[in-house]
Write a structure and sequence with these properties.
Shape: globular
Structural class: alpha/beta
CATH class of the largest domain: Alpha Beta
Strand order of the largest sheet: 7-6-5-1-2-3-4-8
Distance between the termini: 101 Å
CATH topology of the largest domain: Rossmann fold
Radius of gyration: 29 Å
Order of helices and strands: EHEHEHEEEEEHEHHEHEEHEHEHHEHHH
CATH superfamily of the largest domain: Methylglyoxal synthase-like domain
Number of strands: 15
């Protein structure tokens, strides 16, 4: 089986997914391709993916290759080529049978062998990765403890909130990250959102995730490296600045030409969003798509979960996961629903009275009987 198409190059998969056209071949350099990045390529309707880094390095069971296999999108690893080698090349021919790829430009051709990922090889590699996860866990835990020791004191220092226009006091808050199962969780939460009208904070690309399901953020926070200009129309913009002065993404944000405010705190932007909501007085914080497991954090490229652990320690029971809320909310009968059901039944009865002659006669007979009984009792007294 062979696949030929125009190629688009991108060192950052999530940025490439925004510009690549349906039917084109994505050329990425993404070691341990994660699930969210793979889903963005599926959504972009790419014809195939050429990875210049190992799609599965066997360090841990990353889910990206499985997502592409399930969507019948060919994935091959081409480890002998670097991104700068492909400057000027416009198309590629992938032969899945011969396990080769040929990059084509008007002047030359570049041939290379590739590793083809299919369902069988992906499942086999994931099983091997699961056996190696113990070593990764040790390293992950060591890094977590190291950073906790460095950051714990300043992490619990008072936070200085920006001058927020959005009112958080005694309201529910929904923090949306473009992470695992975000779309499914947002769909499940729509009844909850309709009833409670929570403040919605989007973390970077979470703003576009909301637009995809017909919702809109009240606030966007992060380094603005993965959000589109369309999503910035309307919400209040907060730029995440680290305590040491680092302000990643500031140039990108300023390029949008939108007014913004800064919030200073250490940690990942999703943790900072929760801390801001808590400090602003939110009564409940519901997290959608956030990274809570070691695999999810490794997918994000984090070596530990210090900020995530410290954030959850600080917030305590105020923070709940979206899946828990949706499960508690489904099947719940609201008073308004009961009232509407009663009124609907009453309307049906009234309509039946007006259209049914036997029923009118029966009810009229009951009325006359009740009247006669009343007169009889009156005569007794």
């Amino acid at each position: 089986m062979a696949l030929t198409g125009i190629i688009q190059l991108g060192n950052r998969t999530k940025d490439l997914a925004k510009i690549i056209k349906p039917g084109e071949i994505a050329v990425i350099a993404h070691e341990d391709l994660d699930r969210v990045a793979a889903e963005s390529l599926v959504q972009a309707k790419v014809a195939g993916v050429i990875n210049l880094r190992p799609s599965i390095s066997l360090r841990y069971p990353n889910g990206g290759p499985s997502v592409l296999c399930e969507s019948s999108i060919p994935l091959v690893d081409c480890l002998s080529v670097e991104m700068h080698d492909l400057k000027g090349f416009s198309s590629a021919e992938i032969d899945l049978t011969l396990k080769t790829v040929v990059f084509v430009s008007p002047e030359e051709r570049l041939d290379s062998n590739v590793k083809v990922w299919d369902k069988e090889s992906t499942e086999e590699a994931i099983e091997v990765s699961k056996g190696n996860i113990g070593n990764e866990l040790k390293s992950f835990a060591a890094n977590t403890l190291e950073y906790i020791e460095k950051e714990v004191d300043e992490f619990f220092e008072p936070l200085v909130l920006p001058d927020l226009v959005t009112e958080f006091k005694n309201r529910h808050c929904l923090v949306v990250v473009r992470g695992h199962d975000y779309k499914k969780d947002l769909q499940a939460l729509k009844p909850y959102i309709k009833e409670f009208q929570p403040v919605i904070i989007a973390v970077d690309g979470g703003a576009d995730a909301l637009l995809e399901v017909g919702l809109k953020a009240d606030v966007i926070i992060g380094d603005f490296d993965s959000v589109t200009a369309k999503a910035l129309e309307g919400p209040e913009l907060i730029h995440h600045v680290h305590r040491d002065g680092r302000a990643p993404g500031k140039e990108e944000l300023e390029a949008f030409g939108k007014p913004y405010k800064e919030f200073v705190s250490n940690g990942m932007s999703e943790d900072v969003a929760m801390l801001m909501a808590h400090e602003a007085g939110a009564s409940l914080i519901v997290a959608v798509g956030t990274h809570g497991t070691m695999v999810e954090l490794l997918d994000k490229g984090r070596k530990g979960m210090a900020s995530t652990f410290l954030t959850r320690t600080r917030l305590g029971p105020v923070l709940v996961d979206a899946k828990g809320v949706s499960r508690l909310y489904e099947g719940r009968v609201r008073r308004l629903d009961l009232a509407l059901l009663f009124l609907s039944a009453l309307c049906v009865v009234v309509i039946m009275v007006f259209v049914s002659e036997p029923l009118r006669v029966f009810l009229s007979g009951l009325r006359l009987t009740a009247r006669d009984l009343w007169y009889s009792f009156s005569d007794w007294f």
